[in-house]
Each structure stands twice: as C-alpha cells, then as structure tokens.
Amino acid sequence: MKLKFCGAARTVTGSCHLLTLENNFKILLDCGLYQGHEDLIEDFNSHWKFNPQEINLLVVSHAHIDHIGRIPKLVKDGFTGNIICTHATHDLAAIMLLDSATIQERDAEWANEKNMRKKNGKKNEALYTVEDARACMSQFVGYNYNRWNKIAPGVEVFFTDAGHILGSATVTLKIRKNSEEFTYLGFTGDVGRKARPILKDPVQMPQVDYLISESTYGGQSHDEMPGDLNHFWEVVNTTCNINRGKLIIPAFSVGRTQEIVYMLDHLQSKGQLGKIKVYVDSPLAVNATDIFTVHHECFDNEILEYITINANPFGFNGLKYIRSVEESKKLNDSNEPCIIISASGMANAGRVRHHIYNNIENSDNTILFVGYCAEGTLGAILREYPATVKIFGKELKVKADIKIMDGLSGHADHDELIKFISTQDKKVLKKIFLVHGEYDRQQILREALIKKGYNEVNIPLFGQEYELK
After folding, report:
1. How many CB atoms neighbour CB 451 within 10 A?
2. Which CATH code fits 229-408?
C-alpha cells in the first residue's frame, strides 16, 4: 500500500490524504479547501496531486470546510465514487458546501468586476458553483458510529466520535491482506476535548498499524477548561454592561456558534444576561442550528438533562438569528450594547469582517476569539495585538479590546493529543504521520511521542508518498 499526503502537510488547512491499496484501489481521506495565505489558496485549491477520475472512494472525517470544501470540485473533475461519513456529517455537508459554493461564485463575480475596472481582460471562474455543490450530495452515504461497515471489497470502516464538531469522527479502515490477515489504518480527523459544551467526549480509536494524526496544538496547552462560563461572563459584562460596547465574536457557523449560544442560554436562565441583545449573524449558522436539534446521538449527558427543563437550548428571549444582508448592516449602524456572533471563525471572510471593520476603532468594543486561526488570516493577525490592521484595503487603528478564549477550542491540546494517541500499543503501531499542524508545533509533538516510545513518527511534506507494508 501507498500513502500520499495531498493537503494539510505542515500546515493547518486543506486536509487530503490518498491511500492506494495493493490492487490499485484508491481511497481519499478528506478533501478539504485551503484557507489562509491568499497567494497560496488559488494554486492549491485548483490543482490535484492525483487524478480525480481514478479515485474509487472518499471517506470524510467531519464537515468543516478545510476537510470537505473541495468535494464539489472533485466530483466536477470526474470522481464518481461514494462519499462515506457519519449521518450528521452528511446533513451538515449539504449546507456547508452550498454556502461555500455561494462564496466561490460571489468571489469570482467580485474579481471579474475588479478586472473590468482595470480593463486587463482577465476572467475569473468560481472553483465550483451552487449547482456543483448540489450535484455532489447524491454521492454521500451516511453510517452510524461504532459499527464495522463494508464500504468496498476487502475494506471496512469504523467511525468513533471525535468530539470535535457534530458528526465528527475518527476513521479506522480495516483492509484485507489475505484470507487471515488485515491491515488497520487510522485517521484522527480533528480530535476534540473532554467536557466541552453539547458534544460527547472523544472516543478512543481501535488499535491500528498506521496512524495519521492531527497536530494543530502540538507543543501548546489550553489554559482554560472548555466552556468556562465565569470567564465568558466577565468578558460579556465588561464589554456590554460596563463599557456599553459591542462584543463581536468571530465563530465558525458549525459547532462554535452553537456552543456560545448554549452558554448564553445558561447565563439567561440564571438571570445574568439581563437585557443584553444577542445576534447570530450567519444564515449558515441558522441552518446548522436546526441540524443540531435533530442529532441528539452526538449530545453529551449534560445537554440531554438540560433539554428536560429547557426544550430549546439554542434559543432565548433577546436572541435573534439574522439571515438578510440588510439586517446585518443595521447592526453596524446601531450604537446599542450587544453581542454579535458571526462567521467566519478566522475572520478571513464573511460578515464578521464587516463587523470588525466597523467597530475595531472604538475602545468600548471587544473582539473575542474563541478558536484557532490559521496563519495569514485576519484572526491570526488580530490575535497578535497589532497597533493597526488593514481590512478592505484600509489601515485601521486597533482600539477595540482583543480577547482570546482558547478554552473553547474544538481541538485537543498537546497533552490531550498525547493522551489520545498513547492508547495505541507501541508494539503494534508501526508508523505515525503528523498532519494538520504548523511545522514547529509538529516537531514538538513528534519529540514528545518519541519519548513515549513511538519510534516511527513522521512529518510528511506536501506531495510526499510512503510505502506501507
């Protein structure tokens, strides 16, 4: 067998790994969109390290765009096989890919308008269209957690709950070598954290021979426990009640937004939130929240008990979900203290950029980051507390307070990753491949795993291929 790394190699985006079996059957693990440095995006997203027509099967870990965002292009370019995932991932992928396609079309339209003004004759095309996104959904096949399912001749898959977002899974492939022997290959996808709001804790994977592991927070620890309500309330109270300002929270539409709303629901139930208005400004988040309500199989015991006394954990007086652009713009015209939760979580696109643009020069306001921001994104820049920042071509003074709550991160930190991987028997596990991480962090995680007794720990280069015996 051969394993080729076609994305998320020494970077935290564009997850995509190609497994070629002895009989030349090709399985792709994830097919994500590259997000981050503008100069690298087009080159990565438009080109493949393989022929899409030769891929027989795609297995998806979860529905974040950096893991599924190129699927419509894969299908458009000739992939005809099944797309294997959990049931919740299937449902989320439908809305995530339609939203991504809409952005692709708008970006192409905006670029062409710019080209016309410059009269350079250049024509930009969307990476894929809404029609492409709709077309690929017919190839999705959903499966339950904790069951071995045959997905191809001699190949079975086993999904365990990764605790990262709704429907997220670690992937174990059982591949027949001969009548009595099998090779087990594991892929962590993105590993979540224990005791996070809403979701179950990550479940350990079956024993494998080879492991592809994420490494996002290698060498780094989260200072806070997940869902630290006291710290969150302190930020809300200072911004909205004391400073009478706006609290702007860039948050992924799937997962992080629902966690924040759930925490605010608790504050409202306790009578702490008072008359502070809360706006979820993301059509995608509205749709995603609807999907959350029908997938209780992913919920932990805490929220299941909470639902018995509060039937809607994602809705309360003072909370408004916003779909229209007109309503979104009105939020920037208002001076009322409020909380605005808006995508994207890395502030590299979407409505939240406009909210930051309009509010960053007011010292009464706060911008709260609640998760990882890839290098080169606006979120990553602001997390470094710059004096000024350029948004929409204009240099702005950073007067708003910048706050960070990485306790809400959906990724396991260094120690949590070590603990997750360490359940694998060192005598059985032949090789570990670290992906989905910046190189300096991967090196720290690699050294820690070697000290634990895992000798074959690799950090693949983009396009590098390994032989698996």
Report:
1. 9
2. 3.40.50.10890
The number of beta carbons lying within 10 Å of the beta carbon of residue 442 is 27
Which pTM was predicted?
0.89
- Which of 70, 18, 72 is closest to 44 using CA atoms? 70
What are the boundaries of each domain within the chain?
2-220+410-467, 229-408
Q: Does the 2-220+410-467 domain belong in CATH 3.90.930.12?
A: no
Please say whether the beta carbons of 289 and 321 come within 8 A. yes
Q: Is 172 helix (H, G, I), strand (E, B) or coil?
A: strand
Expressed in angstroms, the distance from the first to the final Cα of the chain is 7
pLDDT, tens digit, 9 for 90 and up, residues 264-309: 999 999 999 999 999 999 999 989 999 999 999 999 999 999 999 8
As a whole number of angstroms, the distance between CA 460 and CA 150 comes to: 29
Q: What is the dihedral of CA 410, 414, 415, 416, to 10 degrees?
A: 30
* Amino acid occupying residue 21: L
- HSE (side-chain half, CA atoms, 13 Å) at 144: 5
pLDDT of residue 39: 59
**pLDDT tens-digit readout, 376-400:** 899 999 999 999 999 999 999 999 9
Determine contact, residues 98/134, Cβ cutoff 8 Å.
Answer: yes
